Amino acid sequence: PLEYKSAQHVEAIGTMIGTHLERLWQQYATLPKTTRHSKSWWSPECSSFVKQIRDLRLYRKELVAERKQWQARVVREGESFEMAWHQEVVRVTRAIADVTSQIDRATKQMKGAVRRAKRTFFDGVIAKTHKARIWDLVEWTKPRKMATSTGLMDREGNPIDEPEKVSETFREQFTPANPRPVDMSLLDEIPQQQERDFPPFSKLEVREALADTSNFSTPGPDHASWFW
Known about the structure:
Blueprint: H1 7-28, H2 44-77, H3 83-128, H4 163-174, H5 186-189, H6 203-211
């Protein structure tokens, strides 16, 4: 075993170990990128499949661009194009189909990896939770969320929960018994324009306007929808 000769020797050994650890950390460690899409159950297996799918999609994009170049060359030359160019188009098309099938398989494998990661993570959470608090993990056992809308109140702040009180409150609010007087003489100051004839319209215009409406929308005063 290593024998330390003095306090300075111990400090030198500690400094050397710390330097090596810092070098190894900077060389191999990767800091996670936490975003709003980050999940606590995400596993390295899921990340590997995501990287594989991204690489395959990038490769397929390059193949599609290459095929467009060969197709443009064939179209540009017309009847004098070389048969090797057409063979290149076929080859790239088959490669695109092969990469697409690989993407589909990788996507299915990633879904399986996500299910396994979720199961492993939440099984661990359940195992660490006390039996008496197991229901705290269920969303519907938590307190009910506050309503985004407020109830109808009267002037004294009492809730209105009866139809008669609701109609009375709306009548007092919009059609009070003693409304404020309105000076109708303001209308006389508005300059009057000459009446214009109603612009004529054809049956085709009426038919086109009715074609854009819903046949079973809310009926009007005649209690008949557009369908009838």
